[in-house]
């Protein structure tokens, strides 16, 4: 089969012929139809410090996918050949306290497909049946291929009650934009999304009914005063990993405000803790998706009118993957989807 492999310790990915994966008794074999390119894949492409420390050379990359089950192990129950599916890319252990309590997303022994284990940028993917998420007819393959990042957005957005709240999202990448759409869908009053990249802010405005703010040229306090907000935002979602953005969020939050943090700051960064303490702010770190509650909620919302399709701005044949990565690396795209059919 064809696969995109981190074949060499330098910038890039390489298309290679690989054997179709063998499956164990509790696995399924999935014929991949569509995949999404993630920021994580860009790190791997760029072969930055994190990628060098984490990703073994020779690995098939990719973790955002939709496809169809074409074979199943002897012990697999409840899934049939031909079932369309996506799936959770975190392969969890079953021994930790968290796993045994059903909090699978907090298992410290987690390994990721396309990061530590063979991934989805291939014609076929082996996946434990446990990780499979069947797709209803209402969710087509290209939306199925972005459920992984949508899951990050949903997990972040549902961290705190948003009904009637004013929400600030810093970082208008695809996940920030999808989180904004989710916040509106579940009943937030005002959703303001900030960035310094105007193309991304324009995309945010097309995907969801939100207020895009370019903090390079606009003053956030003036924006929220214009929205008749008195003290500031009730809930923040930090999606950029940018120190200045987090600072600005703390500055513009109400007393007792809440922050869900998905963006990853590079290295250690200075934080004004006294301000966080005196404002009585709650901060929650968000990792991955709740397995499988986030999947349940996002599929239910998609069936109930949540529309994030416009966040997909580019579609390429898998053989044109290099162009897809180029578009992603430009910082001017939304989600890029590759077609493996
Ligand atoms: Zn991803």
Structural write-up:
With 341 residues, this protein is of the alpha/beta class. The protein folds into 2 domains: 2-146 and 308-339, Alpha-Beta Complex (Quinone Oxidoreductase, Chain A, domain 1), CATH 3.90.180.10; 152-285, NAD(P)-binding Rossmann-like Domain (Rossmann fold), CATH 3.40.50. Helices cover 28% and strands 26% of the residues. The protein has 12 helices and 18 strands. The strands form 4 sheets. Strands 3, 5, 6, 9, 10, 17 and 18 form a 7-stranded mixed beta sheet that branches. Helix 5 (147-157) crosses helix 6, helix 5 (147-157) packs across helix 11 and helix 6 (174-185) packs parallel to helix 7.
Summarize the structure.
With 341 residues, the chain is α/β, with parallel strands linked by helices. It has helices spanning 39-46, 49-54, 97-100, 141-144, 147-157, 174-185, 198-207, 220-226, 243-251, 273-278, 293-303, 321-329; strands spanning 2-6, 14-17, 27-37, 59-60, 64-72, 84-87, 90-91, 111-112, 124-128, 132-134, 167-170, 191-195, 211-214, 233-238, 253-261, 282-285, 312-317, 335-339. The structure holds zinc ion.
